[in-house]
Design goal:
By secondary structure, the chain is of the alpha/beta class. The protein folds into two domains: 147 residues, Endonuclease Chain A (Endonuclease, Chain A, 2-Layer Sandwich), CATH 3.30.870.10; 126 residues, 2-Layer Sandwich (Endonuclease, Chain A). Helix content is 39%, strand content 24%. It has 13 helices and 15 strands. Strand 13 and strand 14 form a beta hairpin. Helix 4 packs parallel to helix 5. The longest helix is centred in the middle third of the chain and has 16 residues. The N terminus is likely disordered.
């Protein structure tokens, strides 16, 4: 069997990604190593895409995103709360050096680590990349997590960090839906240049504009079941709706990241008193922010189920109805939460 030189290089790179995961960050921290290895596949064409769902740590999301960035032809627009994965940063820099138009929005003051993005901001700025701090006037935190690479949108629950790709339970959506693409491009332009934005798109949820209204409406419209799989849940209004739906005979199940603080213990007691099925997952760490309604409507977004996320932050989410997405999601939460 004969292989082209680009195919051999590509297989070699993937074998390094998947077979040497514990050491790949040491191997590829040197940007020159990236430049040599990735140049040979930089002219390949991306496969035709409609919608795809990815999840970490199972689906090698890091490799997928790195490949997409490396194959970018025209532009990369990235809006992310936290950016620290060095190989991904190197891939972005190389794309810029290959004349791909790169723009980035970063959060200036990450919660609990206010200077976490400072070093990467300066590095990318010094490379000549168009990078800005997120607007701190119109929103509390820029907690969005999405990128637009050429005409493909990548949206999900994860920051661009090593932990997100290798240890956390995260969900990612890859779509070429034209309405979603156009809407996301408008959002990015407004946030990058700090223009007011008030638009809406049926399948996209955006905080602080319309996500609370859409999420509450979706929860209230449920007829059979609500499954919440998320890092946290504390918004009083959402908790009230869950309680009301449970009283109305809707099956409500909540599966959250394992925490031992007093707030989580209080929430556990509230759910117990309302006979709401509640579980906590120790591994993998649940950083997801998702809802499945009536076993066929799936919501994946960047926001936690907190008042701040719904009303103050910049957050982005997507609604999915495709059976394949729902089935893959249900298989994952079945594994993580056991008997949900």
């Amino acid at each position: 069997m004969n292989f082209s030189s680009s195919t051999i290089v590509y297989i070699f790179i993937l074998s390094l990604f998947t077979g040497c995961a514990p050491t790949r960050y040491e191997q590829y921290r040197d940007i020159r190593a990236w430049e040599i290895a990735l140049w040979s596949i930089s002219k390949q064409e991306l496969p035709k895409i409609s919608h795809k769902i990815w999840m970490s740590p199972d689906d090698h999301v890091w490799e997928m995103l790195t490949e997409r960035i490396s194959l970018a032809k025209n532009k990369i627009d990235l809006n992310v709360y936290l950016l620290s994965d060095v190989p991904l940063i190197n891939a972005i820099i190389l794309a810029h050096r290959q004349w791909v138009f790169v723009r980035i929005i970063l959060e200036r003051s990450v919660y609990g680590a206010p200077t976490a993005n400072a070093t990467v901001y300066e590095r990318l700025k010094n490379e000549g990349i168009s990078i800005v701090w997120a607007d701190e006037v119109r929103q509390n935190f820029n907690h969005a997590k999405y990128s637009i690479i050429d005409d493909v949108v990548y949206l999900g629950t994860a920051n661009f960090t090593t932990t997100s790709f290798t240890k956390n339970r995260e969900f990612f959506i890859e779509t070429t839906d034209k309405a979603v693409l156009q809407y996301m491009e408008h959002i990015f332009e407004a946030d990058f240049y700090r223009f007011p934005f008030h638009g809406t798109e049926a399948s996209v949820y955006i905080s602080p504009i319309d996500s609370r209204i859409k999420i509450e409406w979706a929860l209230r419209s449920s007829q059979k079941s609500i499954h919440i799989f998320a890092a946290s849940l504390s918004d009083d209004s959402l908790l009230d709706i869950l309680r009301e739906k449970q009283w109305d005979g809707v099956s409500v199940q909540v599966c959250l990241a394992y925490e031992t603080d007093q707030e989580r213990q209080n929430l556990k007691q509230v759910f117990k008193s309302q006979k709401i099925d509640f579980k906590q997952v120790k591994s993998p760490y649940v950083h997801a922010k998702t809802i499945l309604i009536d076993s066929h409507i799936l919501f994946i977004w960047s926001e936690n189920f907190t008042k701040n996320s719904l009303d103050q932050n910049r957050e982005i989410g997507l609604i999915l109805r495709e059976s394949y997405f729902v089935q893959k999601y249900k298989e994952t939460i079945l594994k993580d939460c056991r008997d949900i």
